[in-house]
Design brief:
465 residues; alpha+beta; 5-stranded mixed β-sheet; two-stranded antiparallel ribbon; 15 strands; 16% strand; rod-shaped
């Protein structure tokens, strides 16, 4: 969710996509702004599967250990139907003595060839085989959840959406291999053994033979003299659940048919192949998302059994498939601090909610809100907590004089003042001209007035008025 928050900021233009990729690649600090200043980033290295296993076994990766409890596994597989007689864990070529509890790591599983073998319906007169119900319970064994969680913890790179998608894809498809509705192989045949139960033959055949072979049917007389049918069965080449259905019927005295069926149905799954299939599904998806040509695949032919021989699985000898592994974490003083800022914002949103105000882009509005105390600033203190306060007391915010703006305003003022001064000078000149003109007119007026006055005075004196 945090990565979607960061990506949303990039999509909104609040940061560059390059910055978003960097921040999403730094491990998320869930406590940032809530009492901690720890900021860590992951160191990524690329490894082949062989190198990965070596690193895994070194102890640096914190390799998990799974103890397979055969008794507990039997209870899970039975799940109340009472048809599971025994459970075996064996490696290829191992004798029946392999029936013991095992401690597993991913390394031991991937470098080994471990089969889980289940014996069901040992002896019954009824044709009520519940082998499919038992097969359906295989997916509930704890080893699968442990295995997938171990893979995810080891392969996950924080902030890498392609790896996250590949992990999800790998788990979903690996879980499909545990689905009894999509059996890797369902083989029905007959198996002969000295005690006529057939199960030991199934166990031995699983570890000695590659694939399945079945002799042609023999007559009852041939069976009496030792010419019984045989079936051989191995899980090493199959990916997913396999079922062996044995309808072998025992013989009574003098070769007469016994009414009791000696059924020895077998259910098996190769644990190591499931692990390899998971890595293959992961590689298939990841390379596809990276637009890199992909040679890896898991056989999807259910009817003939998903076969290793028809798949291209990631193997220990594969030098080309490189896995991105988080080998260490450390503090990055620059990028981690920037990432931590967005972690803190995200954490505060998660804890306290958020609101939207379209006016925050208006500088005058923001300035007014801050000055009037309607908006506060939150700053992370040395103790890792965020504190709220006014802008005037915040050491990171201060009012400054915009010299450039003042210079521009002063230039405009001087220009306008000069224009006004020029207009004033022109007005003064016009006033002076008007004053001169008025003075001339006044003088002329006075002259005319004086002439008229003297003329009138002379006239009166002439006529002795």
């Amino acid at each position: 969710v945090r990565n979607k928050f960061i990506q949303g900021l990039a999509d909104s233009g609040l940061m560059s996509q390059e910055s978003a990729n960097i921040y999403m690649g730094i491990q998320y600090s869930q406590a940032m702004g809530n009492g901690t200043t720890d900021l860590v980033e992951a160191t990524i290295e690329q490894m082949t599967l062989a190198e990965l296993l070596e690193y895994y076994e070194s102890g640096e990766a914190g390799a998990g250990l799974y103890k397979f409890d055969l008794g507990a596994a039997k209870d899970v597989l039975n799940d109340g139907n009472g048809k599971v007689n025994d459970v075996y864990i064996m490696s290829a070529g191992e004798a029946s003595g392999g029936n013991s509890n095992r401690d597993f790591t991913l390394s031991s599983i991937l470098s080994g060839d471990y089969n889980l073998l289940v014996k069901a319906n040992y002896e019954t007169k009824q044709n009520d085989c519940k082998v499919d119900e038992i097969a359906a319970n295989i997916k509930n064994l704890g080893i699968w959840e442990w295995m997938f969680d171990e893979f995810e913890a080891m392969l996950n790179v924080p902030g890498d959406s392609n790896i996250a998608a590949a992990i999800e894809y790998a788990r979903a498809h690996a879980e499909d291999l545990l689905d009894s509705n999509a059996l890797g192989l369902d083989f029905s045949g007959k198996c002969k053994e000295k005690d006529y139960n057939g199960w030991s033959g199934v166990i031995n055949a699983m570890n000695q033979s590659s694939g399945i072979s079945q002799d042609s049917d023999k007559s009852m007389f041939g069976s009496i003299f030792g010419g019984q049918d045989e079936g051989r069965y191995s899980t090493s080449d199959f990916i997913g659940i396999t079922v062996y259905r044995n309808d072998r019927r025992a013989y009574g005295v003098f070769g007469l048919w016994d009414n009791k069926r000696k059924k020895a149905d077998g259910i098996s799954i190769n644990i190591s192949n499931i692990a390899k299939a998971y890595l293959t599904y992961f590689s298939e998806m990841y390379l596809g998302l990276m637009n890199v040509s992909n040679k890896y695949s898991v056989d999807s032919n259910i009817d003939d059994g998903r076969r290793v021989s028809q798949s291209s699985l990631v193997g220990l000898d594969d030098k080309f498939m490189k896995f991105d592994i988080v080998t260490s974490t450390g503090v990055n003083a620059d990028q981690a601090l920037l990432s931590g800022f967005y972690d803190a914002v995200f954490n505060q949103i998660c804890l306290r909610g958020w609101t939207e105000n379209n006016q925050v882009q208006d500088t005058d509005y923001m300035q007014e809100m801050l000055k009037t105390g309607k908006f506060f600033l939150a700053t992370c203190g040395d103790d890792g907590y965020y504190y709220q306060g006014g802008y005037s007391t915040n050491t990171y915010v201060r009012e400054i004089t915009d010299d450039d703006a003042i210079a521009r305003a002063e230039a405009r003022y001087n220009t306008e003042k000069q224009k006004l001064n020029q207009k004033e000078e022109m007005l003064d000149l016009k006033m002076k001209n008007l004053d001169t003109e008025i003075s001339s007119l006044t003088t002329e007026y006075d002259t005319v007035k004086s002439v008229i006055s003297k003329n009138i005075e002379k006239s009166f004196k002439r006529y002795d008025a």
